[in-house]
Structures are given as C-alpha cells and as structure tokens.
Design goal:
homodimer; 351 residues; alpha/beta; seven-stranded mixed beta sheet; four-stranded antiparallel beta sheet; 10 helices; 13 strands
C-alpha cells in the first residue's frame, strides 16, 4: 500500500519526450532541428565570455536581447517576452490568457503539447478538424470561444496560412486572446507580425530552436501588445524571475544580430526542401505542401510504420505519429543536401 | 473601458525582482552572490564548446550532470532532479507535492517566494512564528498539515538547524512531503542528505547560485526518493521537456566535479563572514549567528533604513526588508575581504 504522503502528490500522466539518439553516425531527421550551425557570432560569444560574470544573477529583464528582437521586428522592447524555449513561453501564455470558462479552440491535428497544457492548467478546449488536405477552415473559428491557438505553419503538416487568412481569423476573434505559434514561420511562411499594429489581443510566439539553430540553448519569445506582454511578465515573475541565463542571453543576441547568416541558412533549407519534395513525389510519395523545415509525406502503396522501421535500421531517424488521421504519414526534417540524398537512396532501395 | 479580451487574462500582482545595479564600481552585497568566480573548469567548457552542438536539442534528462551530482552526494542519478535555478525546482515542487486541502506550514520569516507560489497554485498555507532569536520551535510543526517547507539555514536570518533537529522534524511529519531548502547550506550548515535513506517523503533543494558561483547560469536541483523525483519529472515534462540547455549542463557538471575548488571558496566565505561578524559586533551591531553567506544585523541605536541609504550613497548595496519583525535589520552578503573592509570603513564613518 502507498504511504500516506503519496496521496498528497500531484497525479499526472508522464509526457515522454521524443527519442534523441546521441550517436554521430545517425542521420537525425526526427526533431526538426537545423542541420547548420548557429551564426558565427554565437561561437565568438562562448570563446570570449568571462566565466566570472556567471557568479552574478542575470539581467532578469533580458534588456539587450529584447532590444535586438524589437529592432529585428520593428517593435518596442516592451512588446517582447523571453522564455526558456517556446514551450516555456506557450505554457505561460496558456496559463496567462486562457482563463475563461469557454473552451479554447485549435486544430485537431497540431502540436501535441496543446492538450497537455490544457489538462495541466485545467483549461477547457475543443479541437476543430482540418479538412482532408490538412487545411484550416477559418469559418470554424467564428463562434465565441475562450481563446484561439493556431500554429502557422501547422505541425506536423507543414501547411501555412496567408496573412489575409490570419487577418480574417483575428477580425472574427477580438474578444479573446489569439496565439499564433510561428515556430516554423521562417522557412517560407507568412508571419502575423504586421497585424500586431491592429490587434491588441494577438500574441505571436517564435523560437530560436529551428531557424536560428539554437535548439540546444532554449530560447523562445513572444511578441504582442504591452497588455499581453505585461501579463506574461507578471505570471513569469511569480514563478521565477531569472529564467534566462547570462550566457544564453548573450549568445541569442549574437544570433539575432546576424540577419545575413539567418537569411542564408533559411534559403538553403527551403531549397533542399523543394528539391527533396520533388524527388519524393518522383518516388510515388504524396507530399503535403510545406512552408516549414520538414515534409509530411505518405505513400499510397507502402505502410508508413514499415518505412519508418526500415529507415531506422539504416540509421536514418524520421518521425511517425500513431495518431488518428495521420498514422499513414511520416514527418521528415530537412537536413543537409547530403543527408537528404542518403534518405532518398535508402527510400529507393526500399521501394 | 477595458476591451473584452482583457477579462480573460490572468489577474496577478506582479512580483518585482530585487535591484541589480550593473555598474562595476558598486560593491554588491545585496543578492547573496558569491564574490569568487566559478571553478576554472567552467571557463574551460565555454572556451572549448563547439557552438554547432547547439543546433541539436539538449539531453532532456541531463544524464551527465545528474550522474555528477549523484556521485557527489552518494545517491543514484534517479534521485536527482534538475531545474532552471532552485526557484524553478521549488515552484515545481510546490505544484507537485502540496496538493492537500490541509495548509502547508513554514516559518513566518523566510524566503519571500513561498507565499507567492502558494497564491499562484492556490495552496492553503499557515506560517509558524520564529522565536525572538529567529529560531524554529520544532514542536509547532507536530500538527497534521499539507506539507512542510523549511529553509536550512533560514533566509534572511542565516540561522541553521542541526541534523538531529531535522530528524525530529521528519519523524513528526511522515504523512506529507517535507522540503528542506538548502540554498545556503554549504557555508557551514548541516545538510539533510543523510536522512534521505530513512525518509521517502523528504525533498532537499539546493542551488548552484551561491556556493558554486553560478547565479548567472540558473541551475538548481532536488535530491529525494524516486517516488518524489518521478513526480517532479512528470510535472516538469508536462510543461517543457527541455528546461536545461546543453551549455549550462556542461558548465554545471564542470563545477560539480571540482570539489577542491568548491571547498576552498566556501572556506574563504566562512572565514570572511566570521571576521566581519566580529568587527560588526565591535561596532555595536547585534549579529545573528549565521551559517550562510550573509549576515543579518541590527544596531540598537541606529536606524536600519538610514544605514541602508548611507551605504547606498557610498556605492555599497545591502538588503533591507520593510517587513514585520525584521524592519530594524539589514542583510549583508559576504563579499571578498577587501569589500568587507570597505563596508566596515563606511560603517565606522557613519557611526
């Protein structure tokens, strides 16, 4: 029998993070990481950083990084919130903004953490089905609700919304907070940033894990009105004033300040994606149009789990989701051209 | 009038972090930071770290750092939980372990974040008054409760409990989780680690911000039974699987592996503390016995806020709490011998 103290513990279903094979010989196309290193300025920060500075607490407000991001997006620093990866930012945003008795709404096929946070923070929610091409029907979002979260582009489908569609979504949802999760937007999507001028209830969340090649550093941020950002800051400061460490703040700032490098690696990922999509179609795959750094593919005559298992044996890790509606699909992260050639060779052998 | 979406936001009183003056000429004795740099291995990690590794997600489980900590404390790695500073660990522990309808208990004079987390997570609580010497009366803790949190040594008083007293506390509280917050224990306190063998409901929380000189890196950890650690992991993974970044994990491991340096800087802080306490007593201050890296002092004939303001003018920042029972006290962090001499000179001039 459990000891009495066990009855006082929080009961929770553990969320198990995805597989992270550590071997260097593996081709890792399963976590939407960037195949290119971060901007050269990041290495320079590490090489020249005086470790003695770490004895002091960080700037709790992350002013230098907020200024760099504000300049990048044409916003004020007070419109920027920093977090420990975009999961941290999104979890805080769910807690901060989804406090209504009405359910929040989001697509039925989307980022798997949304229902986890709803359960954790006891937020009622309702999912709205994507159509058969994995597109959002904006009219589904016109009813009253407690909040909206839409990833653009969506994951794991890779499909994006236009700025006009986002404007339509916001025009019909002014009484609640609308979060646009732009984790993958830099690979050809249309950002909602221009809509911040018009909609005070819009929060945009981005990450440095994908387009900035800094998954290992844990930096996410939100852009929005001062009303929303102030609320996020208040909730965050109630937990922990110092979420961003001094080194991370400095390295992330170096990454943001190098716009040329950023544009260059995004273009390379996009070019490799388009080339890979074409080659996969030539092999008979159905490839969902992608504005992200991954492809969502299915083969009409081949079983997805079997392809997944075959690739794994070849040392190529992709992602398979055993979930309703998408259990015949694979999600393949865009690596280097060489990595994608190895993938295509393996698929050719298999087929 | 507020727009309708504002009604759906979380209402919260912002917690304002303490003052962090950035100038180098200031003597900063207000945040209990360590005056010495982190272990030399930390600088070495930064200098040699390949930034390309940051493109990949970190090890979500922080295995290498957990192993180093487990070896340091004679525990299993599964008895170690890692967090983004001990505030992160404590906030998760409050959520994970204080789920009873009975109030949790802690001293009336203690770390100011405890009531903040209770409010945030809607945890009922009751404070138990310290005696006039700022000592805990263990008999106050014998009644049924929803959980116990006791800092040892306590902050801002600096007073510690013996291992026998901790054993007594645990013997009388087996039906709830007991958290011992050991942020300052390495400066002469008695750690509860030997009691982990006996008490499965004991969680010990420590930080690298003080004795490891890594406040800027944000590393805290908890030590406890697998039952408690597994629960913390489940709650943490529901928020954000990747709280610890790759660079921080590597730098913190280097710090933990250098036991000699750690012992050496702790001994230096303790020696400076004892010398400073004696000098302050000679100036007429009443100095609370301290087992931490700060002194809690009052002067029978001088006003604490006035001393605080005078020191500030001299570029010396200490801490004053305008709170019941302690508003005649100052908390002074132990800096280098030179810094403490400057403080003592300033106090001599003032008196």
């Amino acid at each position: 029998m459990d000891k009495p103290f066990v009855a006082k513990l929080r009961r929770i279903d553990p969320y198990v993070p995805g597989e992270q094979p550590q071997s260097d010989t593996i081709i890792k196309l399963n976590a939407n990481e960037n195949p290119y290193p971060p901007a050269p300025g990041v290495q320079n920060v590490l090489r020249t950083f005086d470790a003695a500075r770490l004895a002091r607490y960080p700037d709790a407000n992350g002013r230098a990084l907020k200024s760099a991001l504000a300049a990048r997006f044409g916003l004020r620093p007070t419109q920027v919130f920093l977090g420990n990866g975009s999961d941290d930012v999104l979890a805080l945003a769910f807690q901060s903004f989804f406090c209504s008795d009405l359910p929040i709404v989001y697509p039925d096929i989307t980022y798997s953490f949304y229902p986890v946070w709803c359960d954790l923070f006891r937020i009622p929610y309702r999912t709205l089905p994507l159509d058969d091409d994995f597109c959002i029907d904006l009219r589904d979002y016109d009813a009253p609700n407690g909040g909206v979260i839409v990833p653009n582009p969506n994951a794991p489908t890779g499909r994006g919304l236009t700025l006009d569609a986002l404007d339509d979504l916001l025009r019909h949802n002014t009484d609640c907070v609308v979060i646009i999760d732009e984790a993958y937007v830099d690979f050809g999507g249309q950002s909602a940033v221009p809509l911040l001028e018009t909609y005070e209830n819009l929060l945009i969340v981005q990450t440095m894990s994908k387009s900035r090649s800094l998954a290992g550093l844990r930096v996410g941020y939100a852009l929005g009105s001062e009303t929303l950002i102030d609320t996020l800051e208040a909730v965050k400061n109630s937990y922990n004033s110092y979420t961003m460490d001094t080194l991370t703040l400095a390295a992330a700032e170096a990454a943001v300040r190098d716009e040329d490098y950023f544009q260059q690696i995004c273009r390379r990922v996009i070019a490799t994606r388009e080339r890979t999509a074409e080659a996969l179609r030539a092999l008979g795959f159905v490839v969902s149009p992608s504005q992200s750094n991954f492809l969502f593919v299915t083969h009409p005559r081949k079983d997805a789990p079997a392809i997944f298992a075959y690739l794994r044996e070849q040392g190529i890790f992709v992602r398979y989701f055993k979930l309703p509606r998408i259990d015949t699909y694979l999600r393949i992260t865009i690596g280097t051209d060489e990595q994608m050639d190895r993938l295509l060779d393996a698929l050719r052998s298999y087929l």
